[in-house]
Write a structure and sequence with these properties.
The chain is α/β, with parallel strands linked by helices. It has 9 helices and 32 strands. The strands form 7 sheets. Strands 14, 16, 17, 19, 21, 23, 26, 28, 29, 31 and 32 form an 11-stranded parallel beta sheet that branches. The structure holds guanosine-5'-triphosphate. Belongs to the transferase hexapeptide repeat family.
Amino acid sequence: MSSKAIILVGGGTRGTRFRPLSLDIPKVLFPVAGRPIISHALSALTTVPSIKEVLLIGFYDDSVFKDFLAEASREFPQFSIKYLREYRALGTAGGLYHFRDAILKGHPYRLFVIHADVCSSFPLAEMLSMFEEKEAKAVILGTRVEPQFASNFGCIVMDSATKKVIHYVEKPESHISNLINGGVYLFDRSIFDVIAAARNARAEQARDDPSEDEDAQEVLRLEQDILVRLAQADGFYVYETRGFWRQIKTAGSAVPANALYLQKLFQTDIDAPHLARASATIVPPVYIDPTASVDPTAKLGPNVSVGPRARVGAGARVKEAILLEDTEVKHDACVLYSILARGVKVGAWARVEGSHITPADHSTVIFKNGVRVQSVSILAQDVVVGDEVRIQNCVVLPHKEIKSDVENEVIM
Ligand code: GTP
């Protein structure tokens, strides 16, 4: 029986917390562990042989995905991959409903729906087994977070014996559970009946409230409008993963996502292409694009990705960082817990630094001397850092030249 997958990719007006990195590249195409964020989800989908078609649904211009679709079709020949564009942001369920004919074409029996901004071990085969075993209508991926972070997410209350979802609240005001929505779902076709019912309820409400904008009625969110309904009916289960999981919301969260995907690659395929071998100067996992040049005396890792044509000079130190294409880290410079966007140049003996964070933190904000700052330093496209300059916990907007030390600032 055939299945389909839908990846919700959003659009230019969403994912604003990913700025300034999303100013020149859509968040979902940003490379972590050497590959666009959505490629990791596509790789995971290859573990489900019944999936033949993957639909990316979003509201970016069609041109945004043109090159990616050509590359992805070569990398994943088992899938037909298409981009379907919403005429405006229709919400995570509104887009599904709008494209229901395209989604249901070929009569798929099951539909995987994945939020593109999730970094996960994607236990899709396990979700599928649960779906079949329980004869479910819907299975949601659940993951546990520290209780203090739970209210930033959709929270799930389940019956621990049956794994049935009995209650779902998006970003609750008080603590109800630390089992949260992992942004991956498996539905059967009846999901469209549930969305249709939510739409009708919305239309009814609008009849009573003429101030409601007619266009807004089209906007439906899986989390608020659909999952709450599913939890009130039978057949909705949660698969609780013990694998890694992290959301990619802020630009800084690309650093822990990069670390998680590199570690996964290192653990599952130590000889994977472009993973650098451990040595006195390489602390794995480190990914180096074949067109990059790294001086043998530079020390890299752990959790470093070096992009195409990047250059790392003698005696440099790079750790927990992403260096995108055409970046340069000159000799004896140090880049820690940071992201260098395309074309960034870091001078000799300079230091670009963030603060230590762990993936379990689920936040890229820290407090230093009582001030809220970004834990990761982010230098946007073509920023130039002078020799011997120190940048600490800063976000620097594109094309700036930094000539003196800066700390805990957003430099515009
Ligand atoms: P918050 O987490 O509430 O700040 O919102 P968000 O837009 O950053 O994320 P949300 O959890 O709402 O979205 C989950 C995924 O769905 C992300 O990958 C978004 O890019 C995507 N998404 C959000 N809104 C839409 C939409 O209107 N249409 C489509 N196709 N995708 C969307």
